[in-house]
Amino acid sequence: MIFKDTSFLITGGTGSFGNTMLERLLKTDVSRIVCFSRDESKQFLMQQSIADSRVKYVIGDIRNFDSIKRAMDGIDYLFHAAALKHVPASESFPLEFTRTNILGSYNVMKAASESRVKKAIFLSTDKAVSPINAMGMTKAMMEKIVRSAENTGSTVSCVTRYGNVIGSRGSVIPQFISDMKAGNPIRVTNLSMTRFMMSLQESVDLVMHALSEGKSGDLFVQKSPATKVQNIVESLTSILSIDPPKILEIGVRPGEKLHETLLSAEEMYFASENERFFKVPSIISSTDLTKNRKTETDSEYTSKTTRQLNTNELTILLGKIPEIVDLL
Q: What is the pTM of this model?
């Protein structure tokens, strides 16, 4: 991937992924990066900590086509991370999630095509697979739109899908740390629940891989380990050197699964893979999928079937995550 004299736009640029991607891009010789978001307070704070003349901060909302279209002027590559993500909120306000995650993403796709962006990477979630909550449903529809026959412009559009990102906004680990340090009880839904474990740096690696290797309609997933919620609690207890906290097991909330899925059995059937990543071509855009098919399987790629981290392995992993170390 050649970065010299290229320009990038990151929607949702003030979020956890946006911050990490911005730092990664600034280590290259890119000419311009547009950080697009509707949060002026976070933009102000980012400008104080990231003072680089190549970065332009733009306030706007992907729900407004003209807003995102103006920000695309002269952009070569796009990372679409803007989204509403909170599962319980999506159950209460599904229409708002539809407006942002589906219609807003369509605005981004249309604006990219009209602006002749070379390649656009749309970020999705494991909750889009066999979704049972409104957030996952809207992300699944976003994927369908990006990978559909309707997306016929010159822009190469791909999707990346990943699970729990350690230390990101909404991740349970920072909340656990805060409660433990304050001596408060830990509220967990189910100690046997499993979640994929992926760092922010790895989420950027996945998107960069899609940027480098993706063809229009491709879906990319990183091979990630998983762990039980109980192991997360035990690992943080060890790291903080505290007595085991009181645990309040409140039960699985509406829209939650005990185990998350990154690839369905059907997707696994068509997926190719290397040491780190799966790639699933678009069924619509591919001319001959039969040659890509594996032996028929009912296996999904889930947080229960992937490699499981025990408490010691998780403790080592968390000790390498800067976003977690900063909270300790």
A: 0.92
